[in-house]
Specification:
262 residues; two-stranded parallel sheet
């Protein structure tokens, strides 16, 4: 098995090509419903670039706090518009949910995306008081893990972190240096060292690493490595693959949401 194959998810998921359109349609319907109810603030800018913006979905009452969901796509594709419906689990449980977009490789490096996501969390934290809980999927799992690490967020925001949930994260970037993706990602030794959470001490914030039981071995290994390196809780979600492991975020009574908010 080559590393390109090891990190390829779609060839091993039935009807994988249908997922992006389904995500986008479901998310669009959700945004429209929340906007019509006055529960959505769309396109809040956290920087100057066109992708440096976030959507904020509000609960029906005063928010218990803030959740932030960071999307995946190997830092190469997608934006916040594909995932809006995943806000519903925490939102229905009383939490405000922010979903940022960010610039993509090869226009920027992964370290630049980390800085952008930090700015997005800071901006969202300015909008919503209370504790902050972060969840991110795949490359987004890497990015929320980075947010937990000392010095990435300013102290006033970092002190509000209550829980971080990397879902199917890429926590060790070194293998990706040997894949074709690295033509666009441009990870070098220094960036792999700086940007790989598994190579750094555990943060003080509680962390739960979540991964689907039917995921590729590389992602099962990445999740286990992060959980071991950080002494974090580790959940293997039986029967879930890389594309449907996030579905629980849309359900307020799901175990994923209960763990994130617990």
């Amino acid at each position: 098995m080559t590393l390109d194959d090891a990190y390829a998810n779609a060839p091993y998921i039935t009807d994988a090509d249908a997922y992006p359109e389904r995500w986008a349609q479901t998310a669009d319907t959700y945004r429209g419903r929340l906007a019509a109810a006055g529960r959505a603030r769309l396109g809040i800018m956290y920087g100057h670039g066109p992708r440096e913006a976030l959507d904020l979905f509000l609960p029906d009452g005063v928010p218990e706090g803030l959740c932030v969901f960071v999307h995946g796509g190997y830092w190469l594709k997608f934006d916040r518009a594909y995932w809006s419906h995943l806000a519903e689990g925490p939102r229905a449980a009383g939490w405000a949910v922010a979903m940022p977009s960010y610039d993509l490789a090869p226009r920027v490096r992964i370290k630049d995306i980390t800085r952008q996501v930090a700015q997005a969390v800071i901006r969202a934290a300015h909008e919503v008081e209370g504790p902050i809980r972060l969840a991110g999927h795949s490359a987004g799992g890497h990015l929320v893990a980075r947010m937990a690490m000392p010095g990435v967020l300013p102290d006033a925001v970092a002190e509000r972190l209550a829980h971080v949930m990397p879902i199917s994260p890429v926590a060790d970037l070194r293998p990706l240096m040997q894949t074709a993706m690295n033509r666009d990602l441009q990870i070098d030794d220094a960036e792999a060292q700086d940007e790989s959470p598994v190579l750094h001490p555990a943060p003080k914030v509680p962390v739960t690493v979540w991964v689907g039981g039917d995921e590729r071995p590389a992602f099962l290994e990445q999740a286990e490595a992060l959980a071991q390196a950080w002494g974090a809780a580790h959940v293997v979600d039986a029967g879930k693959h890389h594309f449907d492991v996030i579905d629980g975020l849309a359900e307020p009574d799901s175990e994923m949401v209960r763990r994130l908010l617990g």
